[in-house]
Design goal:
Number of helices: 17
CATH architecture of the largest domain: Alpha-Beta Complex
CATH superfamily of the largest domain: Spore Coat Polysaccharide Biosynthesis Protein SpsA, Chain A
Helix content: 25-40%
Strand content: 25-35%
Oligomer: single chain
Number of strands: 29
Largest sheet: 9 strands, mixed
CATH class of the largest domain: Alpha Beta
């Protein structure tokens, strides 16, 4: 990059573009994966421009590449195989194709883009040719997110070339890479809509907008607060003192700056975010208190409001993706779903600051702070296999007695990452419930799980009989019922339903999609509904929904249904999603 370009870039320091490196092996399908990303981003309403370079094959042999202008899907020949079979680089680039692509990457062509894709950035660009000049110009003049497609063996060279732009590496083979791009685009374009006030109580509660697609960080415990000086850092310190003797836990403090304005040191960030590691455990700063309480490392993240996910992702790159952490922030909950989210308030306080009001309904527990004491029993906070959990005074009932007719084989035993699906389900529940029951009629098959197996009182009567039998065996008044074919259990939603049942007195709390589809096998049932369930069974009813008319039911509206695995096609799709 020339000195003139670098000077221009520094003028944009407060508004740096996102730079991503889409990394994969040579000929591994990076361009095909990009086409899927383009389709997904456009379906979300984003303007995607730039170039793709699809391969051309003849009789199974790679013959060259075309270049596609993503604005209008027009294409031109970019490179063709040379006749000289002994050439070091077997392809010859065509001048017309290079001009065509550089026009597609020009400032005029990308002026209104949300995302600019450059496929690919390789040895030619590293030598200063190809798309190099266009990319350099975009980096200093565009507000769009810029994604460079790179072979894995070149990532160090490209990363070094653009070190000043703090580019983020994304694995093209990882499904989470697609989600991360979409979430960052949402954040940059202010697409996440948050209400300015809490919803009024009603029979049907809507899940907060945007929460179905937030990235999940199960290894993070997030602590928010209703206002200042209510004990947020002290609670973090108490949890650190409890767990740091047996676990390495990173402490994180987040300061959000709105519209690049802040007070004092908070506003002095360079670019979108700043990450500083605390090394002095003897000062009076909150970060020093976290170190003294036992945190292995402590970081202070200052970040622009609209770049929260950017800042978080950069921080996780520093601490490592497998790090267990405790983080203080309200605003971070806007853009991610932690393993556990606690919010602190004083009993007498009704005035919650704006950032707290917007996420209050997402808290797993509202913890009251008074005279240095907290209403939370720390024995309820668990750290299980590196993920945070909150032990609920409830039972989890896993329904595994179905015939799996649509699947054609026992879906509960289908392998997911080397483990049976039902073991994956139970593993997610472990640590969050006082009791776990397996509703099934084959005790031997599920004995390896180590949980109590509850057989149907009368076999062959369907899932309603399974629920009745399990409720009778449950030691808890509140029971979370979940099917064994739900590969990812949204524990935040489950805890929210348990809270609704505990606080509101509902007999059943069940999710419902906007088109009226119930999710009775991802719902909360009081043990006291057993009488109504038995009454329905005695009357010959078999559908779970037929019990609803006999009970006080509360619905939580979801944007989409709970993903499950009913058919072999859905299982294969899940395997592809997981990279298996």
């Amino acid at each position: 990059m020339s000195s003139e370009q670098y000077a221009a870039r520094t003028a944009w320091a407060g508004n740096l573009p996102n730079l991503f490196f889409w990394v994969g092996e040579k000929h591994s399908g990076k361009t095909t994966a990009l086409a899927r990303l383009v389709e997904t981003a456009r379906a979300e309403g984003f303007n995607v421009t730039g170039v793709l370079a699809p391969s051309l094959y003849r009789d199974g042999r790679l013959m060259g590449f075309d270049v596609v202008d993503l604005r209008n899907e027009t294409r031109a020949p970019l490179a063709r195989r040379k006749m000289d079979a002994g050439a070091t680089w077997p392809f010859a680039f065509l001048d017309d194709g290079l001009r065509f692509g550089n026009v597609a990457l020009s400032r005029e062509a990308t002026e209104s883009a949300d995302l600019v894709i450059v496929d690919e950035f390789g040895p030619v660009e590293l030598s200063g040719q190809g798309w190099r000049s266009s990319v350099d110009a975009l980096l200093v003049s565009s507000n769009a997110a810029i994604l460079l497609v790179i072979r894995r063996e070149l990532i160090d060279s490209v990363h070094h070339l653009y070190a000043d732009f703090h580019g983020r590496v994304l694995d093209a083979a990882e499904p989470k890479s697609y989600r991360e791009i979409i979430h960052i685009l949402n954040s940059r374009c202010h697409r996440v809509g948050w209400a300015d006030s809490l919803p009024m109580p009603s029979l049907t509660h809507h899940e907060p907008h945007g929460q179905t697609s937030c990235p999940s960080y199960e290894r993070m415990l997030l602590i928010g607060s209703a206002g200042r000086n209510v004990g947020k850092t002290e609670l973090a310190c108490e949890i650190l003192r409890k767990f740091s003797k047996s676990h390495n836990i990173v402490g994180i403090k987040v300061t959000t700056v709105a519209d690049e304005k802040g007070c004092g040191v908070c506003s002095s960030i360079y670019g979108a975010y700043s990450i500083v590691e605390e090394t002095n455990a003897h000062s009076r700063k909150d970060t020093a208190r976290l170190l003294r309480a036992g945190a292995s490392r402590v970081f202070w993240l200052r970040v622009l409001q609209e770049r929260l996910l950017d800042g978080l992702t950069a921080l996780l790159d520093v601490v490592g993706p497998g790090a267990v952490s405790i983080c203080e922030s309200n605003s971070l909950r806007y853009v991610m779903e932690p393993g556990l989210f606690l919010m602190i308030s004083r009993p007498e306080s009704n005035a919650w600051k704006s950032s707290a009001r917007k996420v209050k309904d997402l808290a797993d527990r509202i913890v009251l702070s008074q005279n240095g004491k907290f209403s939370l029993d720390l024995d309820q906070v668990r750290l299980v296999d590196g993920r945070w959990a909150l032990l609920e005074k409830a039972t989890a009932i896993v329904m595994a007695g179905g015939a799996s007719q649509r699947m054609g084989t026992d879906k509960s035993m289908l392998p997911i990452n080397g483990r049976p699906l039902i073991e994956t389900v139970c593993g997610q529940l472990h640590g969050s419930f006082e009791q776990i029951l397996i509703s099934a009629n084959d005790s031997d098959k599920f004995a390896f799980l180590g949980f109590e197996i509850v057989r149907d009182r009368i076999p062959g009567q369907g899932p309603l009989m399974g629920i009745a039998s399990a409720l009778a065996a449950s030691a808890s008044e509140l029971n979370f019922v979940v099917a064994c074919d739900v590969p990812h259990i949204r524990l935040t939603l489950a805890r929210r339903m348990l809270s609704r049942a505990a606080d509101g007195g509902a007999d059943i709390v069940v999710p419902m999609t906007r088109d009226g589809q119930y999710e009775p096998l991802f719902a909360v049932y009081r043990k006291s509904v057993l009488g109504a369930v038995n009454e329905a069974l005695s009357s010959g009813h078999r559908k779970i929904s037929e019990v609803f008319s006999l009970c006080n039911v509360e619905y939580i509206e979801l944007e989409t249904s709970i993903p499950n695995v009913n058919t072999m096609a859905e299982y294969q799709e899940l395997q592809e999603h997981l990279g298996g």
